[in-house]
Amino acid sequence: MDRLRHALLERDISYCVQLERSYPPVDVVVHVIEFALEVFLLFVGLGVIVLLRRKRRRRGQRIRVSTPGVQLPRRPVRRTISAVDNRPKPPVSNDREPPQEKVLLGRAYVTDGDGLRIKGQEIRLFGIDAPEFEHPYGKKAKWALHGLCKGRDVMAVSADIDDYGRLVARCYLSDGSDLSAEMVKLGLALDWPKFSGGIYSHLETADARRKLWLADARQKGRMDVWEKYEAKRAASGQNVSPGLD
Length: 245
Known about the structure:
By secondary structure, this protein is an alpha+beta fold. The protein is built from eight helices and seven strands. The protein has helices at residues 2-22, 26-60, 138-149, 179-185, 193-196, 208-211, 213-219, 223-235; strands at 103-112, 115-118, 121-125, 128-129, 153-161, 167-173, 190-191.
């Protein structure tokens, strides 16, 4: 009987040993499970990062949807004073180098219908010809320009130097208005195509050249008309020197 019990015990022990060998140890299984979880969490984290980056890119991009036959409205463009500097520049004499561009900004003191002074710099309005102060409509032209500039800053963008050493410049108000164009519109200045390229000619009033006949004669090179006018004024005893306020 003891032998039988001993034989059964040995059989049970050998069976348990074989059963234990057929399955991996518990700690190995635990390590495998932990590794699998780490890999899973790593892929989940990468997926979240990719999704967040795509979302940020979509927010940063402006998507325009176009419908066939429908034109989307454009954003209004602010008109700035610097934007008008692309206009054609006056011809520069071949005997001198074109000056470097100079910009002046400040209150203007008006000297006549096409001249002013900013920060002590004498400036001639670009592309136009207004009557001299002592000529017909000269005073009216000066005070019209004074009214345009009164209480407002003027920006002058240099274009050339005239024969008298004055700075020829395009002059603009803060709202972008071109002083040369405004004076022509008022009928108190003429476009001077020789220097402007004719960009103000369409703004001339119908009677401008008849009223400003001395300026028109100067543009045509008829200085004899000026001489006759000055001689007539001198004979009548009028002061022929430039007038002051």
